[in-house]
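User: Hello! I'm new to structural biology and keep hearing that structure can be predicted from sequence alone. Could you demonstrate with Probable allantoicase? Please show me the input and the output so I can see what each looks like.

Assistant: Of course. The first part below is the input, the amino acid sequence of Probable allantoicase. The second part is the output, the predicted structure written as tokens.
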Amino acid sequence: MSTEETPSAPFTELVDLASRLLGAGIVGTNEDTFADAENLLVAKPAEFRPHTFGHKGQIMDGWESRRRRGTSAETPHPTDEDHDWAIVRLGVAGVIRGVIVDTAHFTGNYPESASVQAASVPGHPSPAEVEAAEWVDLVPRTPLRGDTAHAFEVADGTRYTHVRLNIFPDGGVARLRVHGEVRTDPRELDGLTFDLAAQEYGGVAEAASDRYFSSPHNLNAPGRASVMGEGWETRRRRDKANDWVQIALAGGGEVLAAEVDTTHFVANAPGWADLVGYDASAGGDPSTDTEGWFPILPRTRLQPDTRHRLRLDAGRPVTHVRINVYPDGGLARLRLTGRLTEDGRASLALRWFDSVPAAEAEAALVGAGLSAAEAAALTAARPLADAAAATTAVAALQPADGPDGEHTSRRRSAVWRLLGI
């Protein structure tokens, strides 16, 4: 029996960048006569209902192309390179750490092999522009089995916006999952308040006391939960402790308001909750440092099936927030509205800058005010692991002409506008 998430693949704990909840979609496909390529991105595991036939045959919950044929009676078989493909626009751009190619319920009609490629095409490109992009192999052509969730780890630190699934020579794939780390363009967030915990900006539920009934990753998922199962729910406690979820924010910031949502949790909502914060910008580890946590929201009574909107006093910056629920129960969502600090914005920007393709990094620097030569030199100095490394790299740039002081000032202004250093 196919299982969509493979326990031996730790990358499945990361966000699915190809989730339609985040805005992913099919840009194009060369062939989906039997079953639409859009099915690849359906959030639920694939289903199979035997003997349900439509005008094109058995209805399959996945992407299925027609059977390929050769060019003539003398060559009736497809060539070794003949294949079908589907291109996915990721819901959010990010660094891909692993891919799931799931052939659930495809037993006599699965592809012989498949490959996965990726490209970075910023902005809002047309399908033709995406197809013409420079594609990089993430998963080389690999044999597939029927009714199996194939897990492929990816070792590539580049930020991508699109992936392409190639199947050889034809056949059906039920689901495609693309797990990774969100890399938000910092320019999109400048001057804004937003949900610092949200998956779409890079927030991650990185630890939880309990995930018996449902995942803590649901807490910071996009949109509102439509049923109880789309939230986070713990088992019933039989001791005097409490349950909690720890979230790494998209970047260090000030949390201005919280929404603690118990929608759909009627008889199993927590009685109370509080929020505590941690600032790891100085190098501490929130997973082991029990003394560095400080209160953000005092223990507050919760009501069942209710969106609790709670305004907070802006205080110390935080990089991590932990919600404690007393004694147990379930939450639909947690929203933490706030704004990035200068250090938080710089850290986010450096992670983005280090991961975008070189051509994009250079174009961004030129757009911020550097010369083409300066942009190329600073891009070549990557990775800029922290603000100190970035400052050193900027100082090492040689002026193209004119007084050194003038060029130094211009460089610093340009890099500050982009990277915040």
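User: So the tokens describe the shape?

Assistant: Right, they're a compact way of writing down the 3D structure. Reading them back into a model, for example: The mean pLDDT is 91.
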